[in-house]
Design a protein that fits this description.
The complex is a heterotrimer of chains A (780), B (430) and C (169). Chain A is α/β, with parallel strands linked by helices and 780 residues long. Chain A is built from 24 helices and 32 strands. In chain A, the strands form 8 sheets. A 7-stranded mixed sheet of chain A has the order 14-13-24-23-22-15-16, with helices on both faces. In chain A, helix 8 runs parallel beside helix 20. In chain A, 57% of the residues are buried. Chain B has 430 residues and is α/β, with parallel strands linked by helices. In chain B, the strands form 3 sheets. Chain B has a 4-stranded parallel sheet, with helices on both faces. In chain B, strands 8-7-10-9 form a 4-stranded mixed sheet, with helices on one face. A two-stranded antiparallel ribbon of chain B has the order 5-6. The longest helix of chain B has 18 residues. Chain C has 8 helices and 4 strands. Chain C has 169 residues and is an alpha+beta fold. In chain C, helix 3 packs across helix 4 and helix 4 packs across helix 5. Chain C has 2 domains: 64 residues; 81 residues, Glutaredoxin. Classes of the chains: A alpha/beta (780), B alpha/beta (430), C alpha+beta (169). Chains in contact: A-B, A-C, B-C. Chains A and C meet through strand 7 of A and helix 5 of C. The structure holds flavin mononucleotide, iron/sulfur cluster (SF4) and FE2/S2 (inorganic) cluster. The site of FE2/S2 (inorganic) cluster has 11 residues of chain C, from helix 6. The site of iron/sulfur cluster (SF4) has 15 residues of chain B, from helix 14 and helix 16.
């Protein structure tokens, strides 16, 4: 530790800390613009000057490391004059338009001008005017206000990894520019307006909507992906006008999906009042009438329940309570991306925290478009790569990561077992083995050399596997995951504390779902088939949209053609065409509830936004259904409900009583042993349905902002490698298990040959349920 | 080592600049180029070379006058990373034109110096960063390097020894700031030349994060003589702590402008009167810029100052790159200052607030003042805006920008005020 | 390859070879950016956006990285200039020796402003910073060749001769 004096007070900090950081840690106020704790140091604003005893000139504190015994002063007359002059330089060309500027009231320049500025500027020459740029739907610019701190440029280089912002020219012509085709190519672009300390880069969607002082802030959890970022929802009255990362949250950034989904809160798609179907259309009804209709449809019937994993812990538990109270033995499903329902050797969710993953010796991404799937985790990995730590990847496409992975290998989904078997062969060659590994290996015929990459990573002291959708949605997922489990055991990575078995879940609350629904869940596909086959009488969909999301859209449609649908949720969506009844449940911003993210981190939201219409928290809707179905109400308030949560998931015991950071770790299944599969593929092409952060999820589809971004970022709906296409891009006939259909096929070099990539919700939405297809005629 | 009498030396870097075709290897060799190199490569080691350079008292000729041997000794060894040697041939400081003559007339002297420095620092790749405008000089250097490669003076196993070094000429593209060593490194990495803050110093983390030594052309061209004759020999030239010869580029209102290599400690008067043939008009200079446009001005009272790093600091200025711009009684110092203000505004890299905004501000105020539209309040603005730039930025360009303005305000406020009065009169008569 | 990409200007194969050798001289190819831009400017006269894209592609850089460099350095031009680029140093040394008068003379003779190009596309006159040749003040660089101790008469002869040659460099 280094000891130094800040304004005569002795403080100790880690060696190598900058003076500015030492001051921040110890409560000494030093003004700054260009410094940002998450970005590299630029030291260009020169606002952070301090005096150091024995130095003949003031020092920029952000780039001067502390030294033993150093005597620093942050408040002197000379420094005040320097700061006043620095403000005068900065304001030379800055427009005096604070009253109309969105940043007004939350602007560092404005604050410091008040604190450190002279009463009036003396600059009497020509003012500079700077042209603005079109950076797409999320960021608007007013470049004349720019103070050249280069935070945005460093953000684009270091955090987003896109390098599309830059500094042109020099001297006082120097200006910030962005080179974009239609929009900034980063999925984190919304953070730009947050890091700009002045009003040069602004949030476009909320532009001119409100002033910072009119805003109420609500601490909440984003449920748009399993990362479950800590967010602040800013509202004016009950209207959400902006979402930002929570200041003291786990992550400094949030992705554009989580940020801009807010326009869905007010969209036409919101279910704000109970509705029932009357002569073909859905019409508003009272709660009593709507519940009555739902009861009528479901009472004494065979019910299939499909729900979204993204409800609060309390909401999810109330679904289980409904099931137990009135639908004992009903089919229940929540996962729309899982084909293989055998139990997994490691259940969904991460065994590590994102910090542990960032710090791990090795990280291997297995079959995931992580930038789209978990943009914030991908940012952590980017940070890791930039710091020279390895991240390797095996998968079917060179999914864009905005920083080259250290090692990369392209494989088809059908190669996974050969990859794992090859890795097993490698590690056992080095004397590492686990009970059952030899047999698993022996059960696989081929070997794929991508396994070398996996084996190499496993030989490190610590290794984090990030198992993604290509494996999770695999027909043989349980066997593959067991294979990976064997590898982890063999290489000594299975003990608690250094376990790197991370299975990326479909949505929020994975650990809780295992605890609460582990014994009753079934496959969504099977559930829909049962409905189609006359084994079910009615479907109850709670926030789930199986037509828009997941792998079973075809089956879901067939089911709903057959049986009536009761829809409970916040977003109506296309699926409402089938609904006989709609019951409004409150959005995640509107409930007092708890959420568990993929790491197992528990968050409790306490000051929700008020309801927009007649919607109620999901658990109340569930209790009402139980009551009207004739069951005993298990809980009349949140406390009682939470007691039930603890009954299913004892790990939640302290969630509402302790202010400590609580984690529930992902479950293990030491009994889930699955032999490797020997089933030969029946068709020539594997099919992967590609995830898009701008299209997946009912909330996202209800957002105009994200839909626009989805169009700007879209790739071809159906993609293959040029060699697989063996001919020009265009219409092709594809044969599936259910027949033939013609689709437009595009091509890309950076995908593995032999795989058809299908964008969900595209024209090829119907293909996404397949896992193998053929080209009819002319296939490679 | 060939001991020779330092008193009889007539020059170091410029000893052969006048020899026709000295830029060709054959002629250079006839005049002793590379003669001592085999001895260095075979009999010297890093410590010995660095010691000799330390003993010589050589201080960098690029501007800051930092002791060269000391700089070399800061380079960490056995880091597992390569060490780079970069020759600073950016020569952009207004008034400076000495490196150009070394490169176009005696390129082999620089190459030899770089091989020796490279050998001492265990350098595999060395670069000469030459200002883009010096196309001819770059061509001459490249031809000399080609000849040196052909003669096994560069490349693999130089002269049959274990030492190998590659040397590449890299052209800048018009940016004064790239003479600042960290901006030079940025530029050599293919980026805009924006200086880096220090620490870390280039000696530890420079070119692509590796240990890097940046030396001026003249500094490196002095190395062969030091090694050949010994550090003590060099230390005996000039005055203590300011040893050896120094090339002064003299321009402005002198009768014979040019480069003069004289022992350190020669007085300004001797240089101007005896070497440069005196002033064009009058007998004493109105003002002298002693070390490039970024140095504070000297007045007639300093005419006898000995030209050393230390004496010029004592006189309130600096030796800088040794570029002396002489202004006689005909000089319009307000116009000159305005022109220099334009230079700094044009050349500021733009990153530091006070430099970016301050240089532009100063230039605009000077434009107004020069055209007779100034007012008394402008004097205060000029002073404060300059004073708060200097010493508050990443590099010293801002200090350089402040120097002429502060000199003008200090020594010639009346000249400034008379401009204002002039406009006042015009307004009244209009 | 899309039609847009095909329309990009191309380096000759000889140039590409040169660039390859050049890259090998540096620890990272990015260092070749300034030299390659010099080459591109020689080949294409100025650095249009398309040429900048070509350079970015050739060195595997983001176009922004190229734009930053092109706009930072004064020797890189984004617009065409006259066949003869007359760059007059007007910094201290040259100013004290008549550079401003020389510029005025050139502008009057050619009937253009500083920075302008004659309508016949022959001459462009600009002012530049210290050329590093102050003993030869005033200094004019003509297409990168230094001309020292130049005076108005000198330049008149040069202009007449250049006009006589009808635009060949
Ligand atoms: C704005 C600025 C411009 C500079 N220009 C040059 C230059 O053109 N040539 C040079 O050798 N040094 C120049 N320097 C000094 C270099 O930063 C560095 O000190 C020098 O190259 C070190 O070499 P030396 O130790 O051999 O003198 C400049 C410094 C500053 C701050
Ligand atoms: S002082 Fe000026 S030139 Fe130097 S780094 Fe700062 S802005 Fe750039
Ligand atoms: S001032 Fe013109 S060349 Fe130096």
């Amino acid at each position: 530790m280094t000891a130094l004096y800040i304004n005569d007070e002795e403080v100790t900090v880690t060696p190598g800390t900058s003076i500015l950081e030492a001051c921040r840690e110890n409560g000494a106020e030093v003004p700054y613009f260009c410094y940002h704790p998450e970005l590299s140091v630029a030291a260009n604003c020169r606002m952070c000057l301090v005096e150091i005893e024995g130095w003949n000139k003031p020092a920029a504190s952000c780039c001067t490391p502390v030294a033993e015994g150093m005597k620093v002063r942050t408040q002197t007359e000379a420094l005040e004059k320097d700061r006043e002059m620095m403000m005068e330089y900065l304001l030379i060309h800055h427009p005096l338009d604070c009253p109309v500027c969105d940043q007004g009231g939350a602007c560092k320049l404005q604050d410091y001008a008040v604190e450190h500025g002279a009463s009036h500027g003396r600059y009497a020459e020509m003012k500079r005017a700077v042209v603005d740029h079109d950076l797409g739907p999320f960021v608007s610019t007013c470049m004349t206000r720019c103070i050249h701190c280069t935070r945005c440029v460093r953000f684009a280089d270091e955090v987003a990894g896109t390098g599309d912002m830059g500094v042109l020219d020099r001297g006082d012509h120097m200006r910030i520019d962005g080179i974009v085709e239609d929009c900034l190519s980063s999925e984190l672009s919304g953070n730009l307006s947050d890091i700009c300390p002045v009003g040069a880069l602004l949030d476009k969607p909320s532009h001119d909507v409100s002033r910072p002082w009119e805003v109420t802030r609500h601490k909440s959890t984003c449920t748009q992906c399993p990362q479950g970022c800590d967010i602040t929802i800013e509202s004016r009255g009950d209207e959400v006008i902006r979402i930002r990362p929570e200041k003291d949250g786990m992550e400094p950034w949030i992705c554009d999906r989580g940020r801009y989904v807010y326009d869905a809160f007010r969209s036409e798609q919101r279910i704000l009042e109970p509705k029932v179907r009357e002569s073909g259309g859905l019409v508003a009804a009272s709660w009593d009438d709507a519940i009555g209709r739902a009861v009528e449809l479901m009472k004494g019937k065979r019910v299939g329940i499909v729900f979204s994993p993204d409800w609060s812990v309390e909401g999810l538990t109330s679904i289980r309570l409904l099931n137990d109270a009135v639908f004992e033995g009903a089919k229940v499903a929540f996962d729309l991306h899982r084909r293989d329902m055998r139990s997994f050797a490691f259940e969904e969710g991460l065994a590590m925290t994102t910090q542990q993953i960032e710090d791990s010796g090795q990280v291997v991404i297995l079959g995931s478009d992580l930038r789209q799937r978990l943009p914030v985790l991908m940012q952590r990995l980017r940070k890791r790569i930039n710091a020279g730590k390895p991240v390797s990847r095996i998968g079917a496409m060179n999914y864009r990561t905005n920083t080259e992975p250290t090692k990369d290998s392209l494989i088809r989904p059908r190669d996974w077992s050969a990859v794992i078997a090859f890795a097993m062969q490698q590690v056992s060659g080095l004397g590492k083995t686990a009970a059952g590994m030899d047999a698993w290996m022996a059960g696989v015929e081929g070997r794929h050399e991508a396994g070398k990459l996996l084996a190499d990573a496993l030989m490190d002291d610590s290794c984090a596997l990030l198992v993604g959708e290509e494996i999770r949605s695999h027909e043989d997922a349980a066997a593959l995951i067991y294979g990976l489990d064997l590898l982890m055991r063999a290489c000594g990575h299975a003990e608690a504390g250094k376990d790197g078995r991370n299975l990326i879940s479909e949505g929020m609350n994975p650990q809780l779902l295992s605890s609460v629904f582990g014994d009753v869940r079934t496959s969504a596909g099977e559930l829909f088939d049962a409905a189609s086959n006359g084994e079910l009488d009615v479907l109850l969909l709670i926030g789930s949209d199986p037509q828009g999301d997941g792998l079973f859209s075809v089956q879901a449609k067939q089911a709903m053609d057959k049986v009536p649908l009761v829809q409970v949720g916040a977003i109506s969506g296309q699926i409402s065409e089938y609904a006989e009844v709609q019951l409004p449940a409150a959005a995640y911003s509107e409930v007092e509830g708890s959420f568990v993210n993929m790491e197992g981190r528990i968050r409790v939201a306490e000051n929700p936004l008020s309801s927009l219409g007649a919607e109620r928290p999901l658990w109340k809707v569930m209790m009402r259904l139980i009551q009207d179905m004739g069951g005993d109400i298990p809980a009349v308030n949140l406390d009682e409900l939470r007691a039930h949560v603890i009954r299913f998931a004892p790990q939640m015991e302290h969630a509402w009583r302790s202010s400590d950071e609580l984690m529930i770790t992902a479950a293990r299944n030491n009994t889930a042993t699955h032999a490797s599969s020997t089933k030969a593929p029946s068709r020539s092409l594997d099919l992967i349905s590609r995830y898009s952060m701008y299209r997946e999820g009912a909330w996202v589809r209800a957002s105009d902002l994200l839909s626009e971004a989805g169009c700007l970022h879209a790739l071809d709906d159906v993609l293959v490698h040029p060699n697989t296409l063996a001919g020009a891009e265009g219409e092709r006939v594809v044969r599936t298990s259910s027949g033939e259909q013609s689709v437009h096929v595009g091509s890309r070099e950076d995908v593995v040959p032999g795989v058809l990539f299908v964008a969900k919700r595209g024209v090829a939405g119907d293909l996404s349920s397949e896992s193998e297809v053929d080209f009819v005629g002319g296939a490679a | 080592m060939i001991p020779s009498d330092p008193q009889k030396v007539t020059g170091i870097c410029f000893d052969h600049v006048d020899v026709p075709n000295q830029n060709s290897l054959a002629v250079a060799r006839k005049n002793g180029a590379y003669a001592f190199l085999p001895t260095v490569l075979k009999e010297f080691d890093a410590d010995k070379i660095i010691d000799e350079v330390k003993t010589s008292g050589l201080r960098g000729r690029g501007g800051a006058g930092f002791p060269t041997g000391l700089k070399w000794s800061f380079v960490p060894r056995n880091t597992g990373k390569p060490t780079y040697l970069l020759c600073n041939a950016d020569e952009g400081e207004p008034g400076t034109f000495k490196d150009r003559d070394i490169m176009r007339f005696d390129p082999h002297l620089l190459i030899e110096g770089m091989i020796m420095a490279g050998f001492a620092l265990d350098v595999k790749d060395a670069y000469i960063y030459i200002r883009g405008e010096f196309l001819h000089e770059a061509n001459v250097m490249n031809e000399a390097i080609r000849e040196a490669y052909a003669a096994n003076l560069l490349g693999e196993n130089i002269l049959g020894t274990d030492y190998s070094m590659d040397l590449t000429v890299h052209r800048g593209a018009g940016a004064y700031i790239c003479g600042e060593e960290t901006a030079l490194i940025e530029s050599l990495e293919g980026r805009p030349g924006r200086p880096r803050f220090k620490p870390p110093f280039p000696a530890v983390e420079g070119f692509y994060g590796c240990p890097t030594v940046v030396n001026n052309v003249e500094t490196l061209a002095t190395v062969p003589a030091i090694l050949e004759h010994g550090g003590a020999w060099h230390a005996a030239i000039g005055v203590p702590n300011n040893t050896g010869f120094k090339i002064f580029s003299v321009s402005g209102h002198v009768n014979k402008p040019g480069n003069y290599e004289v022992p350190m400690g020669t007085t300004m008067r001797t240089l101007i009167e005896d070497y440069c043939g005196g002033l064009q008009h009058g007998t004493v200079p109105k003002a002298i810029i002693p070390g490039g446009s970024s140095s504070a001005w000297l007045m007639a009272e300093h005419y006898d100052v000995p030209l050393t790093f230390d004496d010029l600091i004592k006189a309130g200025s600096m030796l800088g790159s040794g570029a002396i711009i002489v202004m006689d009684e005909t000089a319009d110092l307000v116009a000159l200052t305005r022109r220099l203000a334009h230079f700094y505004a044009h050349e500021s890299c733009g990153q530091c607030t006070p430099c970016r905004e301050g240089t532009g501000w100063l230039e605009r105020v000077m434009n107004r003042v020069e055209t007779g539209h100034g007012c008394e309040a402008d004097l205060k603005v000029l002073k404060e805006a300059s004073e708060h730039m200097a010493g508050r930025t990443i590099c010293a360009l801002a200090d350089g920008a402040a120097a002429p303005i502060l000199s003008l305000l200090e020594h010639f406020p009346d000249e400034l005020r008379s401009r204002m009065a002039q406009s006042h009169q015009e307004e009244q008569s209009a | 390859m899309s039609a847009v990409e095909q329309a990009l200007p191309q380096f000759s194969s000889k140039r590409l070879e040169e660039i390859k050798t050049l890259i090998a001289r540096y620890p990272h190819s990015r260092s070749a950016l300034l030299p390659v831009l010099h080459m591109a400017q020689e080949d294409f006269e100025y650095l249009s956006m398309d040429v900048q894209k070509l350079v970015a592609k050739t060195l595997g850089l983001h176009l922004m990285a190229v734009r930053e460099v092109v706009t930072f350095y004064t020797m890189f031009r984004e617009k065409p200039c006259g066949t003869y680029l007359l760059e007059v140093c007007t910094n201290a040394g040259c100013m004290l020796n008549g550079a401003d008068e020389l510029v005025r003379h050139l502008c009057d003779t050619l009937e253009i402003k500083v920075g302008g190009t004659t309508p016949d596309g022959l001459f462009t006159v600009t002012e530049v910073e210290c050329a590093g040749a102050c003993a030869g003040a005033p200094v004019v660089q003509i297409n990168n060749a230094y001309h020292e101790k130049v005076d108005a008469a000198h330049m008149d002869v040069f202009i007449t001769e250049a006009r006589g040659q009808g635009g060949k460099k």
